[in-house]
């Protein structure tokens, strides 16, 4: 599998679609939802997404940064499985990842997966 190939042109590579349990041949809306909760001294970003069942960390990592140029692996992450489902024969889990980040004017998060 070419990790950069995007068969249907929706902006998600086919390999990322595999991780998220979505179809590489049908348009997929943005599979990630991000919310931010301020806490004392730091902030917690909540990233919710669907993940193919059976793929767990460290197969992928969370990276955070204050801009879109410099990224650092963030180990301060707690994942909770909110639900499990089977869609079109693909078993997925809905994940809520609580990611602790320093308070800043901007915080960005991404999932890095290299199958």
Walk me through the structure:
There is one protein chain. The protein has a single domain, classed as Immunoglobulins (Immunoglobulin-like, Sandwich). It contains 1 helix and 7 strands; from the N terminus they run αβββββββ. The N and C termini lie close together (9 Å). The protein has one helix at residues 14-20; strands at 33-38, 42-52, 60-65, 72-73, 77-87, 90-102, 108-113. The longest helix has 7 residues, at 14-20. It has 115 residues and is mostly beta strands. The strands form 2 sheets. A 4-stranded antiparallel β-sheet has the order 1-2-6-5. Strands 4-3-7 form a 3-stranded antiparallel β-sheet.
Concise account of the structure shown:
This protein is mostly beta strands and 115 residues long. Helices cover 6% and strands 48% of the residues. It has 1 helix and 7 strands; from the N terminus they run H-E-E-E-E-E-E-E.
What distinguishing features does this structure have?
115 residues, mainly beta, Immunoglobulin-like, 4-stranded antiparallel sheet, 3-stranded antiparallel sheet, 7 strands, 6% helix, globular
What CATH first level would be assigned? Mainly Beta
Count of individual beta strands: 7
Net shape:
globular
Share of helical residues: under 10%
> How confident is the prediction overall: mean pLDDT?
88
| Residue runs with pLDDT of under 50 for 5 or more positions | none
Question: Given the structure, what is the number of helices?
Answer: 1
What is the radius of gyration? 15 Å
CATH superfamily membership: Immunoglobulins
What assembly state would you assign to the polypeptide chains in this entry?
single chain
SSE order in H/E notation?
A: HEEEEEEE
Distance between the termini: 9 Å
> Spatial order of the strands in the main sheet?
1-2-6-5
The CATH topology turns out to be Immunoglobulin-like
Strand content: over 45%
Number of domains: 1
Q: Structural class of the secondary elements?
A: mainly beta
Q: From the coordinates shown, what is the CATH architecture?
A: Sandwich
Give a short account of the largest sheet: 4 strands, antiparallel
């Amino acid at each position: 599998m070419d990790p950069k190939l995007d068969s249907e042109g929706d902006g998600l590579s086919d390999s990322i679609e595999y991780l998220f349990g979505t179809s590489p041949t049908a348009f997929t809306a943005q599979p990630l939802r991000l919310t931010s909760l301020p806490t004392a001294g730091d902030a917690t970003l909540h990233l919710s997404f669907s993940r193919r069942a059976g793929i767990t960390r460290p197969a992928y990592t969370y990276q955070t940064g204050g801009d879109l140029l410099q990224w650092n692996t963030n180990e301060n992450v707690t994942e909770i499985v909110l639900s499990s489902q089977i869609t079109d024969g693909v078993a997925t889990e809905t994940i809520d990842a609580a990611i602790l980040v320093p308070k800043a004017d901007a915080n960005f998060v991404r999932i890095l997966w290299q199958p």
